[in-house]
Structure formats: C-alpha cells, structure tokens
C-alpha cells in the first residue's frame, strides 16, 4: 500500500508539473511585412477615397432627332472632333438646299440689276449731251439721273439680299452639323447610352422613350483622387504635400502623388473634409471610381530609392537577451508557429518610421510576438489575448 501511495503521488506531481509547464502563455502578435510593402511607415496621415475624373462628359446632340448611326462602344478610344454618332438629316439637307437656292436666286437678281444700272448710266450720259446742245428738256435729264440713283439703290439692296441668303445657308449648315455628334476632347468611352433608331434630345424627356445622351467620355489624363480626411486631422494636410497612393486592385503599385487642394467645405454627417490628390504616374490600370488608399508624407521620398531588403516589425517585438551583442545588431524575436513560440536570432537594421527593420531571421508574413512575457521560452505554448 505504501509503495502504491508513493507511485500515485509521483504520478500526480508529474502530471501537475507537465500541466503547469505546458500552460499556454497569453501573448499579443503582429504580422511582419516586407520593407516597402503596404502602407508607408513614415506616413503622417492615411485616408481612403476614390479615383475621379476632372473631365468627363455625357455627349449628346444639340437637337432632337433619330439616331441613324452609333460609331462607339465601351472601351473605345476617341480623339477630339471624332464622329461618335449621326442623326437623321434628311430634313436638314432639304433646308440647306433651299437656302443655297435662295443665294443663287439673289445672285441672278443682282446680275439683272447690274445690267439695268449700266443702261441707266448710258441713258444719263446721252441726256447730258442732248441737254448741252439744247435738244432735250431739263426734266428728261433729271429723270435719267434719278433712274441711275434708283438702280444703284436696288443694286445695293440686292447685295444685302445675297448676304442674308448666305447667312441662311450658314445657319442651315450649322443645323446640319448638329446632326453629327463629335467628341469634345480626347478620351475613352466608358458608357454607351443609346442605340440606332432611338430618339435623342439635349432636353430631359418625361416619357422615358427619349435619350438625353449617346455615351460618356472620360479624359484619362485628368484622373485624380478624392479622399475624405477626418476634420480632426485636416490641419496636417497642406497644398503640394507629398503623398503615396495605393489602389485596392493593385496593392503592389505605389503611385507618387501630391495634394492639389483642400476643398473648403466639410461634410456635416461624416465630419470629414474632401482633399484632391494629383497622381504623378498613370497608365491603363487606372480607371475612374477605383478604391484607393492615400498616405500623406512629411517629406517627398527620394527618386528611385529602393527599400532595404528585410521585414518591418514593431520595436516591442524585439528582445535583447543575455549573451547577445546588440551593438552588432543581434537580438531575439519570437515567432508564433502552430500555437508555439519559436525563438529566432535576428539581425536588426535601422528604424523605419514606427517600425524596426529586421534584415535576417524573419520572413514576410510571419507572425511575431509583441512585448514577449518573461516566462516565454522557445517552444512555449501560446495563445492570443482577447
């Protein structure tokens, strides 16, 4: 019995020692990320927003008519003045032809009056010769002179009629040109709003069967970013402040940018102020309404500056233990792997903003323990604090 009690006591002690020694240690963790990836560590402020276009137009005709041709589709690149669509111009052609016929009629009338004026001038000269020899009356000479003046006035009126007829031709030509829809600037078609056979009008129609536009064109060179900054931090944002924009769709693409202006108006509901940010690099990946994150920087980053290879970790994740030489950049980081702490000897680099650069010992994406407790050892079971 005594031997049995001793065995039981030893087994219980061993169990207690095993349970106590393997009790999980509560820790806080963070993810190590590669230097140069993610949000900049030297950012003064960060905000989110969307890509917007300063030049965007829904193109329509300047008259009401039926579409006979639509020459665009989504994604088409267009040049300024390029024909996008045409309306039925049958009536406009007829009106232009009528105006041109009036010009020809007025010109023919001018030729007739010119001939009559020449005849009146010849009659006046003959009457003057007869009057000098006393072979005609004074009244006949005055009538000849009056006829010349009358024909001169009629000739001038005919010239004004020609000008009026030419103005009508120009007006008819303008109306005819209205039947052709052209691109107002270089851009890309982002929406096609009408089809052949539909009626379009520059005025809003209430019936729902009349389109107000043919399509929407965006000038891709005018793309910029609009972000909402909390009004509590808006004092930190200044015009021409350097920035770095990262698209949600392309997180690896770091776009240099700068602040264009702080819009002097606040959103009462969201307590934010809108800020315009100009992008200094653009290509076909950039399209309107994309989500974007903007980091406002205290200083403009160096051109073509490549980040030092390594990962960034919180400074509290680094422990200097006895026997190491911190002067040479040696330290310890505990990496969380499958619920256990793994002690890593690492080599440190410079401070990067709020983080510390680790050049050796930790890989990007690994989870490190922040402020490791004193009881944490290599191989300890760990659990994240709630």
Structure commentary:
- The chain is built from 3 helices and 24 strands.
- Helix 2 packs antiparallel against helix 3.
- It starts with a helix and ends with a strand.
- With 386 residues, the chain is an alpha+beta fold.
- The strands form 4 sheets. Strands 1, 2, 18, 19, 20, 21, 22, 23 and 24 form a 9-stranded mixed sheet that branches. It has a 6-stranded antiparallel barrel with strand order 3-13-16-15-14-17.
Provide a compact summary of the structure.
The chain is of the alpha+beta class and 386 residues long. The chain contains 3 helices and 24 strands. Helix 2 runs antiparallel to helix 3.
- How many beta strands in the DSSP annotation? 24
Rg: 43 Å
Structural class: alpha+beta
Task: Characterize the largest beta sheet: strand count, sense, and whether it forms a barrel.
Answer: 9 strands, mixed
Number of helices: 3
Helix content: 25-40%
Q: Helices and strands, in N-to-C order? A: HEEEEEEEHHEEEEEEEEEEEEEEEEE
The residue ranges in which pLDDT falls below 50 over 5 or more consecutive positions are 16-20
Overall average pLDDT: 84
Shape annotation: rod-shaped
Instruction: Tell me what portion of residues adopts beta-strand conformation.
Output: 35-45%
The N- and C-terminal alpha carbons lie at a distance of: 48 Å
Relevant terms:
3 helices; 27% helix; alpha+beta
What is the fold's blueprint, element by element?
Layout: H1 2-21, E1 25-31, E2 33-34, E3 43-53, E4 56-59, E5 65-70, E6 77-78, E7 83-87, H2 90-132, H3 138-177, E8 180-182, E9 187-192, E10 199-200, E11 210-211, E12 215-218, E13 223-230, E14 242-247, E15 254-267, E16 272-279, E17 291-297, E18 311-313, E19 318-319, E20 330-337, E21 340-352, E22 355-360, E23 367-370, E24 382-384
Parallel strand pairs: 1-24, 10-11
Antiparallel strand pairs: 1-23, 2-18, 3-13, 3-17, 4-12, 5-7, 5-10, 6-9, 7-8, 9-12, 13-16, 14-15, 14-17, 15-16, 18-22, 19-20, 20-21, 20-23, 21-22
Helix pairs in contact: 2-3
């Amino acid at each position: 019995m005594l031997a049995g009690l001793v065995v039981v006591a030893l087994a219980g002690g061993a169990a207690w020692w095993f349970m106590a020694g393997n009790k999980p240690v509560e820790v806080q963790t963070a993810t190590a990320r590669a230097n140069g990836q993610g949000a900049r560590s030297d950012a003064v402020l960060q905000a989110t927003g969307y890509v917007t276009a300063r030049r965007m137009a829904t193109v329509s005709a300047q008259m009401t008519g039926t579409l006979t041709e639509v020459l665009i589709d989504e994604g088409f690149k267009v040049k300024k003045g390029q024909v996008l669509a045409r309306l039925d111009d049958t009536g406009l052609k007829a009106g232009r032809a009528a105006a041109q016929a009036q010009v020809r009629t007025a010109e023919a009338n001018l030729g007739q009056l010119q001939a009559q004026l020449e005849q009146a001038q010849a009659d006046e000269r003959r009457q003057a010769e007869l009057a000098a020899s006393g072979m005609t009356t004074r009244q006949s000479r005055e009538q000849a002179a009056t006829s010349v003046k009358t024909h001169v006035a009629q000739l001038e009126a005919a010239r004004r009629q020609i000008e009026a007829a030419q103005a009508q031709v120009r007006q008819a030509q303008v109306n005819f040109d209205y039947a052709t829809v052209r691109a107002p600037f270089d851009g890309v078609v982002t929406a096609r709003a009408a089809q052949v056979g539909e009626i379009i009008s520059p005025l809003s129609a209430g019936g729902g069967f009349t389109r107000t536009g043919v399509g929407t064109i965006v000038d891709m060179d005018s793309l910029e970013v609009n972000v909402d900054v909390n009004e509590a931090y808006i004092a930190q944002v200044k015009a021409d402040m350097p920035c770095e924009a990262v698209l949600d769709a392309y997180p690896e693409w770091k776009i240099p940018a700068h602040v264009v202006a702080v819009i002097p108006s606040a959103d009462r509901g969201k307590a934010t102020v809108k800020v315009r940010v100009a992008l200094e690099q653009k290509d076909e990946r950039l399209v309107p309404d994309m989500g974007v994150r903007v980091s406002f920087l205290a200083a403009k980053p160096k051109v073509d500056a490549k980040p030092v290879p390594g990962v960034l970790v919180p400074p509290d994740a680094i422990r200097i233990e006895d026997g190491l030489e911190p002067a040479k950049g040696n330290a310890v980081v505990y990496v969380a792997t499958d619920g256990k702490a793994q002690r890593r000897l690492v080599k440190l680099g410079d401070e990067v903003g709020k983080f510390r650069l680790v050049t050796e010992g930790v890989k990007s994406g690994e989870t490190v323990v922040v402020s490791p407790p004193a009881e944490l050892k290599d191989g300890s079971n760990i659990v994240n604090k709630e």
